[in-house]
């Protein structure tokens, strides 16, 4: 059962999100969280698939981007998306704690970077922020 | 055993799993996602983790057959496994995974071997404990959302 704060914040499909992570379980948890919050969500397994989606014309309000992924990692994908002119909020989520890896990830063009796992509270704050600025 | 007693036993078992460091806050986050529409969400995720673990362990064991070790490959496999274990809140397993990765960075074959054995041991222990926990939870029936005792 989600807490009161979460129940009060259902986004009624006003927002869309893309989950980019090579870990199936991580994607399952994010997807479940986002669907419960009333966010329309898609998932992909690596950075290249994320870039391909945007190149095909898809748009999202939020991207949750893992760092270490095969084929194209999160930093490469983020850099590419920014070079394409994508202004979507991109939140990095990495197993690395604050330090050089997070800094390098931020420099690729993230809006924020969080250490895994991304808590429900942080996710709600991120979505609230996006919703208020729509 | 009466329902209330079973529920008490379930709660107690759950509490012990946290106190002994097998589970962390992420498990609570998973429980918060469970609802009437998805009454077995946590058990499903955990089952998925243990099924996927078999493949991860096979990959690592196969990689450890070649000498010298390809530490980059081993690190990559363990990174994936660590991500999964982190998703279910498997604290001790996550810790061992982190140590394994550190040994990969150091290029220590002995460290990797030793840590991997410990990791498999922790994995087997947690699997058994959670299987028992979910079995008991099913017998006890639905309760209000358990809160981690403070």
Automatic annotation (TrEMBL), chain A:
Superkingdom as given in the UniProt entry: Eukaryota
This protein's UniProt keywords: Phosphoprotein
SUPFAM superfamilies: CheY-like
Keyword Phosphoprotein found: yes
Gene3D superfamilies linked: 3.40.50.2300
Positions of the Response regulatory domain: 16-131
GO biological process, one term: phosphorelay signal transduction system
Positions of post-translational 4-aspartylphosphate modification: 66
Statement: the UniProt record of this protein carries the keyword Metal-binding: no
InterPro entries found in the cross-reference section: CheY-like_superfamily, Sig_transdc_resp-reg_receiver, ST_Response_Regulator
Region forming the signal peptide: none
PANTHER family: TWO-COMPONENT RESPONSE REGULATOR, TWO-COMPONENT RESPONSE REGULATOR ARR22
Protein name: Response regulatory domain-containing protein
Organism from which the protein derives: Coptis chinensis
From TrEMBL, chain B:
Record field: transmembrane: none
Residue(s) carrying Phosphohistidine: 79
Keyword Phosphoprotein: yes
GO CC terms: cytosol; nucleus
Alphabetized UniProt keyword annotations: Cytokinin signaling pathway, Phosphoprotein, Two-component regulatory system
Locations listed in the record: Cytoplasm, Cytosol; Nucleus
GO molecular function: histidine phosphotransfer kinase activity; protein histidine kinase binding
Entry's Gene Ontology BP terms: cytokinin-activated signaling pathway; phosphorelay signal transduction system
Classification via Gene3D superfamilies: HPT domain
Primary localization: cytoplasm
SUPFAM superfamilies (alphabetical): Histidine-containing phosphotransfer domain, HPT domain (SSF47226)
Chain ranges of the HPt domain: 38-133
General function of this protein: Functions as a two-component phosphorelay mediators between cytokinin sensor histidine kinases and response regulators (B-type ARRs). Plays an important role in propagating cytokinin signal transduction.
Domain comment quoted from the record: Histidine-containing phosphotransfer domain (HPt) contains an active histidine that mediates the phosphotransfer.
PANTHER family: HISTIDINE-CONTAINING PHOSPHOTRANSFER PROTEIN 4 (PTHR28242:SF43), PHOSPHORELAY INTERMEDIATE PROTEIN YPD1 (PTHR28242)
Protein name: Histidine-containing phosphotransfer protein
Gene source species: Coptis chinensis
Lineage: Eukaryota, Viridiplantae, Streptophyta, Embryophyta, Tracheophyta
